[in-house]
């Protein structure tokens, strides 16, 4: 109710401002990047609340009319013409050097702020402005693509979005079959890990007694889930995704549930890339589930390994013999996993290779290669288990040869694991994973096959 009232109030202010702008012949604004930049300059020059809100809405509306070239020109203009006020900054620097007091340091800080940051704040006052700015940053990220000329603008936008999408503003909501249809439709559309094929598939994931779905929302984007997680309640830790998503599976009585499995986490807003909510989401969902189901004693993921096969194909320094490399050619057969002998031989190579991928392999900058691993290990999870042929979907086979992993969130160890990874780059892993490293993994496999 309060959000709706506030939105209506802003819309009323904006409409009154539009009336004032029309009377002032604002319709003469050029509808290209240069005209839009002029309007931004006018917005920064200082107006009343009504006309300023309306002008902000006008800027956002005109931006949406620009084509890709116009949007890039607009972004370049924000970089070149809306930086810090150089004269004011020079004076602040001189004052600081003369008398380096706390007051002068504060003045220097504010003088160094680019004018585009205040512009973005004013644009955010428009009705629907927050969502439009998130979409605008998605465009910006798409245009950067390794280029650095727009990096300063992206730093300013992401700095402000990080403040506005601070955890304190986010609201956790459970998604179930009673959730409004427009939000459910977005859950289907945004699912990024295991595609939701239709409404019946969605219902199987959120409606049964042993299934949960939670999402974070922001008060300024009440119908837009920012990130959501799908949870399966099981008796034990699963090693494959198909049984969890099966159409004809047996529902688990809730009294038997001992494990909460986070099997899909999807970010929905590309414009919020780099602004992480996932760690907060998992921790809060764990607390929600513990309150509801105190008998739960294990919290794990069943996660994809999206970078594994790309690494196998591109890395020339893999710990492989010539015989191993020859064996990997069998992966070219799309049905290799249906042949038990071939699958066993490939397992003897790929499982130790997967252990090396997590425990030893790094990017040139020293980071873990896999983005999912960086996320969970950085949040304090333990790499618990590597699951052979856990995902037989075309996507799973293409990206990871079907391998999935479990990350275990043991609440007493989360902080310790996080510190080990953040400070020393240590991957906290179970003994079972460590034993899969080359040599030891082969011996274990031979024992299983004998």
Automatic annotation (TrEMBL):
Protein name per Swiss-Prot or TrEMBL: MCD, Malonyl-CoA decarboxylase MCD
Lineage, uppermost ranks: Bacteria, Pseudomonadati, Pseudomonadota, Alphaproteobacteria, Hyphomicrobiales
Domain Malonyl-CoA decarboxylase N-terminal residues, every copy: 82-165
GO molecular function, one term: malonyl-CoA decarboxylase activity
The species this protein was found in: Bradyrhizobium forestalis
Boundaries of every Malonyl-CoA decarboxylase C-terminal domain copy: 168-409
InterPro entries noted in UniProt: Malonyl_CoA_deC, Malonyl_CoA_deC_C, Malonyl_CoA_deC_C_sf, MCD_N, MCD_N_sf
Biological process terms in GO annotation: fatty acid biosynthetic process
């Amino acid at each position: 109710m309060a959000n709706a009232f506030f939105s209506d109030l802003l819309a009323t202010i904006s409409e009154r401002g539009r009336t004032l702008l029309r009377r002032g012949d604002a319709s003469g604004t050029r509808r290209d990047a240069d005209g839009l930049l002029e309007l931004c300059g006018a917005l920064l020059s200082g107006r009343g609340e009504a006309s300023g809100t309306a002008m902000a809405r006008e800027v956002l509306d005109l931006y949406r009319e620009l084509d890709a070239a116009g949007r890039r020109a607009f972004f370049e203009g924000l970089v070149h013409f809306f930086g810090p006020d150089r004269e004011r900054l020079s004076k602040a620097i001189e004052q600081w050097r003369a008398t380096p007091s706390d007051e002068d340091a504060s003045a220097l800080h504010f003088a160094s702020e680019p004018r585009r940051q205040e512009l973005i704040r004013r644009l955010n006052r428009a009705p629907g402005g927050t969502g439009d700015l998130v979409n605008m940053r998605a465009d910006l990220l798409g245009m950067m693509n390794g280029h650095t000329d727009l990096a300063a603008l992206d730093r300013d936008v992401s700095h402000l979005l990080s403040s506005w999408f601070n955890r304190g503003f986010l609201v956790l909501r459970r998604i179930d079959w009673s959730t409004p249809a427009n939000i459910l439709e977005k859950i289907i559309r945004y699912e990024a890990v295991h595609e939701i094929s239709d409404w019946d598939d969605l219902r199987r994931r959120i409606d049964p007694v042993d299934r949960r779905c939670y999402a974070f929302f922001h008060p300024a984007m009440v119908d837009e889930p920012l990130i959501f997680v799908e949870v399966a309640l099981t008796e034990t830790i699963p090693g494959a995704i198909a049984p969890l998503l099966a159409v004809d599976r047996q529902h688990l009585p809730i009294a038997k549930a001992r494990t909460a499995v986070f099997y899909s986490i999807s970010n929905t807003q590309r414009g919020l890339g780099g602004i992480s909510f996932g760690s907060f989401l998992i921790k809060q969902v764990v607390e929600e589930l513990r309150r509801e189901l105190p008998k739960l004693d294990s919290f794990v993921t069943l996660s994809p390994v999206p970078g594994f096969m790309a690494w196998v194909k591109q890395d020339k320094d893999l710990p492989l013999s010539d015989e191993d490399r020859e064996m990997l050619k069998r992966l070219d057969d799309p049905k290799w996993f249906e042949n038990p002998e071939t699958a066993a031989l490939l397992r003897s190579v790929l499982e130790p290779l997967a252990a090396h991928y997590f425990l030893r392999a790094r990017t040139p900058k020293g980071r873990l290669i896999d983005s999912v691993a960086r996320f969970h290990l950085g949040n304090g999870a333990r790499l618990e288990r590597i699951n052979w042929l856990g995902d037989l979907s075309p996507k799973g086979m293409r990206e990871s040869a079907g391998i999935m992993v479990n990350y275990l969130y043991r609440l007493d160890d989360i902080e310790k694991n996080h510190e080990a990874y953040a400070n020393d780059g240590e991957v906290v892993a179970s003994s079972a994973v460590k034993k899969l490293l080359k040599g030891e993994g082969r011996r274990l496999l031979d024992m299983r096959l004998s």
